[in-house]
């Protein structure tokens, strides 16, 4: 059934590619789409990413683009996942040098932040897409969250975190995302972002197995 394109959304019975592994050709096509999305967003932010232009730039049919990404929000959230995967690869080649897990995570997140800072229009587009995402974008949002968690756990040096440590990681993720929003809106400086990140990363210390609880704290 042909797609009915309306703005940056598609109304059709076309199904997105299943969870089955992509073929080499499909993966190459998907990568071209993500590269085109990032390139356009880097130039002009969220509004610069138009699905028809993404299709033309990545040399795929518009209907094919919508089969991969049903809307601009789906596309930009997937673009954020791709950017985080690239950052993760870079971080693995040059791991953080802090003495404690909290210091290493703070350094890692600030390095990721500085990478986004170099492409403010792209960062703004991706964060806006995450903010606009509804339930239909849950798989893509979950991928972003899992990638961020993996980056933090790598910095901590953990392969088997406790429930308390995973809870701390989630709070750190929320703070990092909030810090991005406040910085992009001009309501926080880089120095303030660093203070917030370093502060929240101290949660890692108190969730370490065997951590000493402050006197007078509740049991």
Automatic annotation (TrEMBL):
Which residues does the annotated region (Disordered) include?
Answer: 1-27
Question: Record keywords: DNA-binding included?
Answer: yes
Coiled-coil residues: none
Q: Give residue spans, biased composition: Basic and acidic residues.
A: 1-11
User: From which residue to which does the signal peptide run?
Assistant: none
Q: Name all HTH tetR-type domain ranges.
A: 27-87
Q: Which domain of life is it from?
A: Bacteria
UniProt entry keywords in alphabetical sequence: DNA-binding
- PROSITE patterns, per database record: HTH_TETR_2
| Pfam name, any one | TetR_C_20
**Known DNA-binding region:** 50-69
Can you say what this protein is called? TetR family transcriptional regulator
Taxonomic source organism: Streptomyces phaeoluteigriseus
């Amino acid at each position: 059934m042909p797609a009915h394109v309306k703005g940056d959304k598609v109304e059709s019975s076309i199904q997105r590619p299943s969870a089955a592994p992509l073929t080499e050709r499909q993966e190459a096509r998907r990568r071209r789409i993500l590269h085109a999305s990032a390139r356009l967003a880097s130039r002009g932010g969220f509004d610069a990413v138009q699905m028809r232009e993404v299709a033309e730039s990545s040399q795929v049919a518009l209907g094919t683009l919508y089969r991969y990404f049903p809307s601009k929000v789906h596309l930009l959230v997937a673009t954020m996942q791709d950017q985080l995967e690239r950052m993760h690869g870079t971080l693995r080649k040059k791991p953080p040098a802090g003495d404690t897990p909290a210091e290493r995570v703070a350094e890692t997140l600030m390095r990721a932040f500085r990478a986004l800072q170099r492409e403010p229009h792209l960062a703004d587009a991706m964060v806006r897409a995450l903010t606009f995402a509804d339930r239909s974008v849950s798989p893509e949002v979950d991928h972003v969250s899992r990638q961020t968690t993996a980056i933090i756990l790598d910095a901590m040096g953990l392969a088997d975190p406790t429930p308390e440590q995973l809870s701390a990681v989630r709070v750190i993720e929320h703070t990092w995302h909030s810090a991005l929003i406040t910085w992009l809106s001009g309501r926080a400086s880089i120095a303030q972002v660093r203070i917030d990140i370093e502060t929240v990363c101290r949660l890692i210390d108190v969730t370490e197995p065997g951590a000493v609880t402050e006197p007078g704290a509740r049991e």
